[in-house]
Amino acid sequence: MSLRTETPSYQDGLKELQGNLSNMLPGEALAIFEEDATALEAQHQDILKLSKGDLAPNFILNNAVGETIQLNNLLQEGKVVLVFYRGSWCPYCNLQLKQYQQVLDRMEDLGAQLVAVSPQTPDESLNLKEKNELDFQVLSDPANLVARKYTSVFRNADKPVKAMADLGIDFNSYYSDDSQELPVPAVFIIEKDGKVSFTRATGGDYRNRVEPSEIIDELAKS
């Protein structure tokens, strides 16, 4: 077996990221994002739409280069680790997916492939893949039609969207509509028979994400 790098810690990465953001962003913007994350944590207590043992809803979505990907076809090859994230503009999503890339070989050794889904356009998914050098499928879910079957969906508040605009980030340009709707980040493991064996969301505060080690440990159980 090939050598493996140490499993990254999301919490350690988060501390470093937040330190960098505190140096890069104006205090007013940081306060708005903090307020938003705290409000979302309070609003979203019952997040997941599926439980362990449920049959995962099939879906057909486009990947970053416009190919159609169907969950049932992926499951013929093995387990699927399904990740819902917000978009390539989100530094926490980038951190999460880069760390999952670091343990992708271990997921594959354990018979699983990784699939990440967001409502952003295929062009933005491609930008995300290239920027973070991702070797797994990144799918576009317009209007969060698939996400709604797995996790909670909410409208991103106007204050953080305006704060992003003040920083030069056009939130709506990442999506095919102007609904401002986003999924609450969540991770699912789906077995070959289509049944969900693992469900995890870390709360409404989007800064918190499922640790790579938790996914690897769960895959190693079977």
TrEMBL record:
It is an enzyme of class 1 (oxidoreductase). GO terms for cellular component: cytoplasm. InterPro entries: AhpC/TSA, Peroxiredoxin_BCP/PrxQ, Thioredoxin-like_sf, Thioredoxin_domain. Residues 50-222 form the Thioredoxin domain. Transmembrane segments: none annotated. GO terms for molecular function: thioredoxin peroxidase activity. The keyword Oxidoreductase applies. Its EC number is 1.11.1.24. Keywords: Antioxidant, Disulfide bond, Oxidoreductase, Peroxidase, Redox-active center. The keyword Translocase does not apply. GO terms for biological process: cell redox homeostasis; cellular response to oxidative stress. CDD domains: PRX_like2. It holds the Pfam family AhpC-TSA. It catalyses: a hydroperoxide + [thioredoxin]-dithiol = an alcohol + [thioredoxin]-disulfide + H2O. PANTHER family: SLL1159 PROTEIN, THIOREDOXIN-DEPENDENT PEROXIDE REDUCTASE. Thiol-specific peroxidase that catalyzes the reduction of hydrogen peroxide and organic hydroperoxides to water and alcohols, respectively. Plays a role in cell protection against oxidative stress by detoxifying peroxides and as sensor of hydrogen peroxide-mediated signaling events. Belongs to the peroxiredoxin family. BCP/PrxQ subfamily. This is thioredoxin-dependent peroxiredoxin. It comes from Christiangramia aestuarii.
